[in-house]
Amino acid sequence: MSRVSQPELKKFMDRRCFLNLQGGRQVSGVLRGFDMFLNLVVDQAHEELGGGQRKPCGMIVS
């Protein structure tokens, strides 16, 4: 049986990241946590709306 490996996201912890989520949403923020299923916790998040517009979202779990 094959073993499931942890995602290689430790190097991005506590750093500002730009994420492309399902459904075409784009979010930027500070990566605070993740799990083996790629659920992410992003703090100080902003949704990128296009045309330079950003909507503050606070902390999100995706």
Mean pLDDT: 91
* H/I helix tally: 0
Distance between the termini: 29 Å
Structural class: mainly beta
Helix content: under 10%
- Oligomeric status: single chain
| Rg from Cα | 13 Å
CATH architecture: Roll
Tell me the number of structural domains.
1
Q: How would you characterize the largest beta sheet?
A: 4 strands, antiparallel
Describe this structure in words.
The chain is an all-beta fold and 62 residues long. It has one domain: Roll (SH3 type barrels), CATH 2.30.30. It has no helices and four strands. Strands 1-2-3-4 form a four-stranded antiparallel sheet, with no helix packed on it. Strand 2 and strand 3 form a beta hairpin. The model has no long low-confidence stretch (mean pLDDT 91). This is Sm protein G.
